[in-house]
Write a structure and sequence with these properties.
The chain has 19 helices and 21 strands. Helix 3 crosses helix 5 (332-351), helix 6 crosses helix 7 and helix 13 packs parallel to helix 15 (563-575). It has helices at 11-26, 245-251, 255-266, 309-316, 332-351, 353-373, 396-413, 415-428, 436-448, 452-455, 460-465, 479-492, 508-523, 541-555, 563-575, 582-591, 595-605, 609-622, 628-638; strands at 40-52, 57-68, 75-79, 83-90, 97-99, 102-103, 112-116, 124-130, 138-141, 153-156, 176-184, 190-193, 206-216, 222-225, 228-233, 236-240, 274-278, 287-288, 293-296, 324-326, 432-434. The protein is of the alpha+beta class. Strands 5-4-8-2-1-11-13 form a 7-stranded mixed sheet, with no helix packed on it. The structure holds ligand BES and zinc ion. Residues 313, 317, 336, 339 line the site of zinc ion.
Length: 643
């Protein structure tokens, strides 16, 4: 890239200034971006696309307005599989003249750098480009993959580093941009984005958006499909396909209440509207906190609002993540740990303390299972992800260990003080991207140093930099779960039959705990003489199948319409070779693309030669319907080679 530089005559002062800017940026060096925002920083992006469903591409321009901190340096952008047609630059912001560019070598995780030399005074750069059909951040759905079966659908997923596969930009969360977009679609379809738009827009296939608040690149989002809107409250609403909109609106009817509950504790909601887009089932995540417009999987539509903790979670990101953002992907726990903590606080206000306790206890259980399976280096909140795909850091550690750390602070300093602290933290760093070090310094100054005797009880360095959990970590428990365990135990020791367990008041969370408890019991050695009994034996496969059938007859788990319960049951069915559930397993894997569900199911299948065969047979049919991110995950699990 140095061959472009021709402004060497600026003297030593500039060099020094550049050095200092670099030194500042070094504090937050992002190993997952080629950009050098300490020298040139993108401030605003104007986007203009045609959405071409027949070619499965976006085609148009991205016009970047930049701050020249080191005027002699080129603009380096992140790209992945983009076709760059031409580049233009402008000094007055209006008239553009042809420019040059170079695309560097492509890296498996990072894609390729696009280097654009900037003439003196150039402050805007226009890139004419198109995406590729296989772009990792886009999924193009055939009509058959939608609920309505008539119209195609496309949606983006930018986090962690997929924005670069559909927009050439500085794809690092420490760079924040405002943006506008103009999107042309086939006439009958609606485009929505993580931005402001005219609510009464006519469906004419020409849509405009504006995001006036600076956001990191991973929050830029777009979806196009046959969408309807339904209002849920004064500033909340839901978008979904026509045949899903009624179910979605009634499931999500507590959304406005959640916004109010969060504002009461953490300060005003700063993004104007909060809408939710319910996507087709191939969406690879549960939810994505795109500002003003959360993207959500339809698998949360259980019919009884039992899975709306996901809405509490994505809404909470409006403070933790979108307002105060992780500066690099090693600081991801600042996004997800804070959000998981806030999520539970919202649930407590809207659905009561017992619900919060259950969710926290389920979280701790998952965390302990994860810790048992992970290497030490992956159990650290401030994780080192250099040379790795940032998605590898997306385990229960940033979520549940992060939330437990904040719970520990809350319990130690008291809720009132901790709430005050968090509220001022969100305010202090609003619209900024920060590192773990910056958080720790702020914590020290505003909480720890004020109450040294209390601070001595929280091993902050151990929480952030060491694997596992500190011995003093909170252990959330649920009295309701203790009851469930007693009932499950009575059934397992043949004191009652399944149909006689008093389950009529159980919530989804209690059912989930019941299933996990039963699974653990089926896997554990059974002994007459207590845990130390050397004659302990496993239940035989036949005995396990008998117990599974009894449960299924009593509670119809194989037919459960609740995705979390169905997932837990199907996982158990694989583990215990319960064949009557296999057709449902196949149907589930063919219709759902949510990674959290399909990855563990395929992993479980892959543990036996027989299971691996069945997994491959199903995946052969499922693969083409999956999102590129899900495909990458499952290809890895099954060691899939192109056929
Ligand atoms: N921001 C995440 C989703 C994400 C993380 C996408 C990392 C890409 C990379 C989102 O807020 C999230 O955590 N979603 C969860 C649901 C939540 C209720 C725990 C999910 O998708 O399962
Ligand atoms: Zn999250």
């Amino acid at each position: 890239m140095y061959r472009f530089l021709h402004c060497f005559g600026l003297g030593i002062i500039i060099v020094l200034a550049t050095h200092m800017a670099n030194a500042q940026e070094k504090a937050a060096q992002d190993f997952h971006s080629y950009a050098d925002p300490g020298t040139v920083r993108v401030k605003h992006i104007d986007l203009d696309w045609d959405v071409l469903f027949d070619q499965k591409i976006l085609k148009g321009t991205a016009t970047l307005t930049v701050d020249r901190i080191s005027p002699d340096r080129p603009l380096i952008l992140d790209t992945r599989d983009l076709n760059i047609e031409k580049v233009e630059t402008s000094a007055d912001g209006r008239s553009f003249s042809p420019g040059t560019f170079a695309i560097g070598e492509s890296d498996k995780f990072l894609g390729a750098p696009l280097t654009i030399p900037l003439p003196a005074n150039a402050s805007r750069v226009r890139i004419h480009y198109s995406t590729s059909p296989g772009a990792s951040g886009l999924q193009w759905l055939e009509p058959a993959q939608t609920a309505g079966k008539k119209a195609p659908f496309v949606f983006t997923q930018s986090e962690a580093i997929h924005a670069r596969s559909w927009i050439p930009l500085q794809d690092t969360p420490q760079v924040r941009v405002t943006y506008t977009a103009r999107v042309r679609t086939p006439g009958n379809l609606l485009a929505v984005m993580s931005a402001e738009h005219d609510a009464n827009t006519t469906r004419d296939g020409d849509y405009s958006f504006r995001m006036n608040q600076p956001i990191p690149s991973y929050l830029i989002a777009l979806a196009v499909g046959d969408l309807r809107f339904r209002s849920l409250g004064p500033r909340t609403g839901v978008y979904a396909e026509p045949s899903v909109i009624d179910r979605a609106a009634s499931e999500l009817s507590d959304t406005e209440k959640m916004v109010v509950a969060t504002e009461r504790v953490y300060g005003p909601y700063r993004w104007g509207r909060y809408d939710i887009l319910v996507l087709p089932p191939s969406f690879p995540y549960g939810g994505m906190e795109n500002p003003r417009l959360t993207f959500a999987t339809p698998t949360i539509l259980a019919g009884d609002k039992s899975l709306v903790s996901l809405v509490a979670h994505e809404l909470a990101h409006s403070w933790s993540g979108n307002l105060v953002t992780n500066a690099t992907w090693r600081d991801f726990w600042l996004n997800e740990g804070f959000t998981t903590y806030l999520e539970r606080r919202i649930l407590e206000v809207v659905y009561g303390r017992p619900r919060e306790e259950m969710e926290a206890a389920l979280g701790l259980r998952d965390l302990n299972e994860e810790i048992a399976a992970l290497e030490d280096r992956d159990e650290i909140l401030h994780i080192d992800l250099k040379g790795r795909d940032p998605d590898e850091g997306s385990t229960d550690i940033p979520y549940e260990k992060g939330a437990l750390f904040l719970r520990h602070l809350e319990q130690t300093f008291g809720r009132a003080r901790f709430d005050q602290f968090l509220k001022s933290y969100f305010n202090h760093f609003s619209f900024q991207s920060i590192t773990t070090e910056q958080f720790v310094a702020y914590l020290k100054q505003n909480l720890l140093d004020k109450y040294p005797a209390l601070a001595a009880k929280v091993p902050v360095d151990e929480w952030i930099n060491k694997p596992g959990l500190p011995a003093t970590a909170p252990k959330p428990t649920s009295p309701a779960f203790a009851q469930v365990e007693r009932q499950a135990q009575r059934w397992l020791s043949h004191d009652v039959s399944a149909t006689r367990i008093p389950t009529n008041k159980w919530t989804t969370q209690e059912w989930l705990h019941f299933l996990k408890f039963v699974q653990d019991s089926l896997a554990a050695p059974v002994s007459a003489g207590g845990p130390a009994d050397a004659s302990a034996t496993q239940l035989s496969e036949t005995e396990k199948i008998k117990l599974m059938s009894e449960l299924d007859r009593a509670f119809h788990f194989t037919r459960s319409g609740n995705s979390e319960i169905a997932f837990q049951w199907l996982l158990m069915s694989i583990r215990n070779a319960y064949e009557p559930a296999y057709p449902r397993l196949e149907e589930f894997l063919l219709s759902v693309g949510r990674r959290k569900f399909i990855k563990p199911l395929y992993e479980e299948l892959a543990k036996t030669p027989d299971g691996k065969e069945r997994a491959l047979t199903i995946y052969r049919r499922a693969r083409s319907g999956h999102h590129p991110i899900a495909v990458a995950t499952i290809d890895e699990v099954l060691k899939w080679r192109a056929e």
